[in-house]
Amino acid sequence: xxxxxxxxxxxxxxxxxxxxxxxxxxxxxxxxxxxxxxxxxxxxxxxxxxxxxxxxxxxxxxxxxxxxxxxxxxxxxxxxxxxxxxxxxxxxxxxxxxxxxxxxxxxxxxxxxxxxxxxxxxxxxxxxxxxxxxxxxxxxx
Length: 141
Known about the structure:
globular, single chain, 35% helix, alpha+beta
């Protein structure tokens, strides 16, 4: 859409504009750096497990029919290959972080780093069979 002077107006959903809510990292590389900084603060047992996990960052989670539950968008997903696909030369476990939903929940870089740490900690701990109470008992939160 352009006005009579041939200037282009930004639509409210323009992905290049700063969101009205949340903090947006300047570039994907800066977001990656914030994620690396957050991962360095995780407890040693979880860091050891993460060495065998592939970390991916996507902008938004895929649309699922179950996403209409009202919980809001997913922040991360821990994916495990199906039985029989593990072993040498097979796909490793994968932790996928969704950048836009994480950014929307934070007001600045410090808070974004803390949210990423919390989400990764919970996803990996839950995969290892540690529930929220176990996380708190260990003093990881």
